[in-house]
Amino acid sequence: MTAAIVKMPLGHATATADAILAVDDLSYVVGGGARELLILQNISLAVKRREFVSIVGASGCGKTTLLRLMAGLLQPTRGSVRFNGTIVTEPDRQLAVVFQDYGRALLPWRNVADNVSLALEARRVPRAERGAIIDRLLAKVGLADRREAFPLQLSGGMQQRLQIARCLAQEPQILLMDEPFGALDAMTRQNLQDEVARLSAESGTTVIFVTHDLEEAIYLGDRVISMESRPGRISEVVEIDLPRPRHQLRTREDARFLAYRHRLFDLLPTTGH
Amino acid sequence: MRIPGKGLVFPLAVLLLWELAARSGYFTSTSLSYPSAILFAGWGLLVDGAMWKATRETFGAALGGMAIGAFFGMIVGIAFGLSRLLASLMRLSTESLRPVPSVALIPLALLIYGYGYRMEIVVVAFACFWPVMIVTEGAVRGIEPRLMEVARALKFPLVARVTKIILPAALPRVFVGLRLAASISLVVAVTVEITTNPIGLGYGLIVAQEGDRADRVFAFLIWIGFLGWLLNALLLRAQRRWFGKFGNWSEAAR
Amino acid sequence: MTLRGPMLWGGSVIVLLLLIGLWQLGSNAGVIPQAFFPGPDRTFETLSDQFWSEEFWLAFSETIRRMFFGFVLASVLGVALGAALGSSPTLREYLEPTLELIRPLPASAVIPVFVLMLGLNERMVLAVIAFGSIWPALLGTVHGFKTVEPRLYEVSRILRLSRLEMIWKIALPNSLPDIFSGLRLALTVSLILAVVTEMLSGAEGLGHNIILAARSFRSADLFAGIVVLGAIGYVTNAVLERVERHVLRWRNS
Q1: How many domains does one find in chain C?
Q2: Residues of chain A whose pLDDT is less than 50?
Q3: CATH number of domain containing B243
Q4: What are A175's strand-pairing partners?
Q5: Is B24 part of a structural domain of the chain?
């Protein structure tokens, strides 16, 4: 059951003036000839500085592909991705990516501190300064007491926090998060949701958060972009007007929260939660 | 094994350069021959039967050794796999024997049996015993416990249990070990022939080298490499055909 | 179950001693021909004689020296070349089929080629050992590089790591398990080739000693030599495994 596509006036979603990331009429095709598959179609959106944007959609709608295109890991077939006005042709430290499969994005042979250090080494931060930065970041994500542990000794939630710490160590302008809490249990998920909200508010980092969990998208975002599948298109963009800081109980029971949920729920296929 | 076009570029280029360099007289040393001469020598050896005779001899010793080594390896492997107690008690003894390089036994075999097939078979058997034993032990340990219970419930005597249930269940993994043993048997056989035994392909190599016939040396070398590749490829085919349907079905069952 | 482990180990010691005892009995009774298999007593006696013999230690050190020279040199080269090869998909495409052709070649079969090239001397011995040992290390490294977690490649692209950094900080550590596999094989090969080349070239060494002992029907010397070679194999392997366990300690969590 799909809703009618709500076309946003061009000005609303694509005001590029102070957009830190702008996607302009992007399409993405895989395969060739007879086996050509259109994954994304005419995607246009603009993300403002310090904004927390949630992208929500059913599994397979292309939201992860969109995120990877924004990160520069993939190149669009048509259209463009611009970061601070410049076209994105390759990945960059400023566009940090938090992957869903955290275990595979960490270096298992380095301990917690050294995993964070990797980003600092990449930035050529002088050795003497690294320790303090690592301590600060580990404290922020709550891993200060596990400095010497190896990733395989950590729980899933801790590993994900480690990945987030490493990404923060890049001092990125944008944090791209690809269903980061999908592999975690409900309670850890809620804790990490609040941590991410807090971290981004504190550091002023722009966050683009991809998820299939509608409530998570609304809970975290300033704006929710809803996608529909086959091919992936933006179906609706909803501004979230809920007070910050958000609260797991109060916000989720807020009448506006439920209203947003209703509105966006109808846009997702019934099996898409 | 499909060799894609690009993969041929490098070896062909090397062969071409080698041929040209030798023919142009730029490198005066004849000690390394060149591709066309090697091909010619190899062809000659095949045609006059020398290559085949040597191959038969090497394979005979290798196969004989592998049969013996694999046989005992499987028996001991099954015994160790079924009885952890036995395995633990024998651990020190086996671990003392295993590190002995098979080549170190060549002089011993020579002492006992003199030149000929027997000494070579013995050395090959020793070399093949270990990988087969280890793989078999692991394979037997890894058998679905349900199957073992079924075997016991049906009150099979030991031999029947082994032949009807254990061996078939362990066979896919054991076969991989047998493949490894086959390669080892060829390598060790050739090594024995190179060091002491005057039969087979290894001996052919030595004779050619002592006669300063570089073309023959390379011909034998390439032939040996080809045989090794062929052996492994055939066994791999057999493995895929027999076990490909279930793959490691003993592991899929769990 | 803490008592079980040591008890079993003790049990295996007893079993080994029993077997040695049986060997001794068989030897005394003449069931095991002394001409071929000296009893444990004679073997031990020969070993202790060798312990005090300068000649023995000379031969021993020669064998060890060759083995290590070949192994260390070949490993470093093999890993470096493997890293270069493994990190370049284009190079791999061109060279992998050739590598697959070289892989099944018995290392000892190339000895005659080296003899033709270099003669029956020390240079040949070292060249053969190095050549034989380089392939397992190289192939292991290439395989390790091929199986690097793709996600980590993406991370290195995002972090803008230089090619060298990517190899040194990500691909190489990730490949260490495979590299160690290759190194263990290279170690075995280097010992085997050291012995074989010594047998062939008559150069001073343990391999030469045992073939000489066989030809002179000195079974005790032969057996002692086998024991020593087995011990070398065991110790070197154990040391390598120790190193491997330490380097890869992050795995055991």
Answers
A1: 1
A2: 1-15, 271-273
A3: 1.10.3720.10
A4: A96, A207
A5: no
In this prediction, residue B250 has a pLDDT band, given cuts at 50, 70 and 90, of very low
- Residue B168 in any domain: the answer is yes
Do A150 and C149 make contact, defined as CB atoms within 8 angstroms? Answer: no
> Is C16 within 8 Å of B93 when comparing Cβ atoms?
yes
User: Is the pLDDT score of C253 beyond 60?
Assistant: no
Residue-wise pLDDT tens digits, C158-200: 999 998 999 999 999 999 999 999 999 999 999 999 999 999 8
Tokens describing residue A259: 């209203």
Q: In this structure, is residue C152 part of a structural domain? A: yes
Q: What is the CATH number of the domain that holds C91?
A: 1.10.3720.10
Inspect the interface and report whether the beta carbons of B221 and C109 lie closer than 8 Å. yes
In degrees, to the nearest 5, what angle opens at C-alpha A126 toward C-alphas A122 and A127?
95
Chains that touch B (3 or more CB pairs under 8 A): C
Enclosing domain of residue C232: 38-248
pLDDT tens per residue across span B100-144: 999 999 999 998 898 999 999 999 999 999 999 999 999 988 888
Which domain covers residue B149, as residue numbers?
32-252
Q: Which residues, 6 or more positions from B90, have their beta carbon under 8 angstroms from its beta carbon?
A: B80, C12, C15
C215 CB within 8 Å of a chain A CB: no
pLDDT band at B63 (very low <50, low <70, confident <90, very high): very high
In a domain, B193, yes or no: yes
Could you tell me if residue A184 is left (phi over 0), alpha (psi between -120 and 50 degrees) or otherwise beta? beta
